[in-house]
Specification:
Elements lengths: L5 H11 L4 H8 L3 H8 L9 H14 L4 H13 L2 H17 L3 H21 L8 E4 L31 H5 L7 E7 L3 E7 L5 E5 L4 E6 L2 E6 L5 E5 L2 E2 L10 E6 L2 H6 L1
Antiparallel strand pairs: 1-4, 2-5, 2-7, 3-4, 3-6, 6-9, 7-8
Helix pairs in contact: 4-5
């Protein structure tokens, strides 16, 4: 074996294991043309030495040979081909060019962080921003822990509630419209139906103010009765209930203004 060249030695060890080039390529996941080039000592078609040494380590396990012996024989062969040695030098130069210094990466990250903070601070913050969305169905308040008996009798559903607003229409000559203002003390979910329109949800946070207007009536379901104060045409109404209590009620025209004073 000592008198065998690198390629002959590699081929003999493979054949001793009864492996074809296809089988060895399948086991090592190395392209067959590279394995064949190694046995034929055609270094010009091989990648840089650093990769070839990796090929040899993988092959050594399959052909029952010490990896260092294969690598030593390969390095001896490579010395006889000076032009091949430049492949590794060229590869190292390219890798060095592509490698970004850690200091540069750190500076880039710092700049990105500073820009992100500046963008965030430049966005105007509106703490009274209210989330509003139309709802398909409402079964119960997401904030209610214990559902107590509602203040008023009108049930809340997803479809517009068929309210009897004939009396409110008669009284319409008394005022142009009715307005209802909410001032939140705690996080409060509210379902609102204005006149005979489709209901929608409002989520108020502490400090939020929300105002709505109607021609005839409001139907409301409040998920945290103690978390919000109501003002009907700027006249404060009595507290709706306790914190966490769910209440549903209807305001028809201006009649309830007189009742709530």
């Amino acid at each position: 074996m000592e008198n065998l060249s690198f390629g002959e030695f590699l081929k003999k060890k493979r054949e001793e294991q009864g492996l074809s080039l296809d089988e060895l390529a399948n086991r090592t996941k190395i392209r067959k043309e590279f394995l064949k080039a190694l046995e034929e000592e055609r270094l010009e078609v091989l990648p840089a030495p650093v990769f070839v040494k990796g090929f040899l380590r993988l092959s050594a396990r399959e052909i029952d040979t010490e990896p260092e012996e294969l690598i030593s024989r390969f390095e001896t062969l490579a010395k006889e081909h000076p032009s091949y040695r430049f492949k590794e030098e060229d590869w190292l130069k390219k890798e060095k060019k592509l490698r970004i210094p850690y200091k540069t990466i750190f500076i880039i990250l710092v700049i990105i962080t500073i820009l992100s903070i500046l963008v965030y601070l430049s966005i105007p913050k509106n703490h009274s921003e209210i989330e509003i969305k139309e709802i398909p169905t409402i079964e119960e308040s997401p904030f209610s822990a214990n559902q107590e008996e509602p203040v008023a009798m009108s049930p809340s559903t997803a479809s517009p509630i068929p309210l009897d607003i004939s009396e409110a229409k008669k009284r319409k000559t008394e005022i142009e419209e009715i307005s209802l203002k909410f001032k939140a003390k705690e996080k409060t979910w509210i379902q609102i139906q204005i006149d005979e329109k489709r209901p929608y949800e409002v989520l108020l946070r502490p400090g939020d103010t929300y105002k709505i207007k109607a021609k005839y009536c409001f139907h409301l379901k409040v998920g945290n009765a103690g978390g919000v104060r109501l003002f009907l045409n700027d006249i404060p109404l009595e507290p709706l209930g306790k914190s966490g209590e769910v209440v549903s009620f209807t305001i028809l025209g201006s009649a309830l203004i007189k009742e709530k004073r």
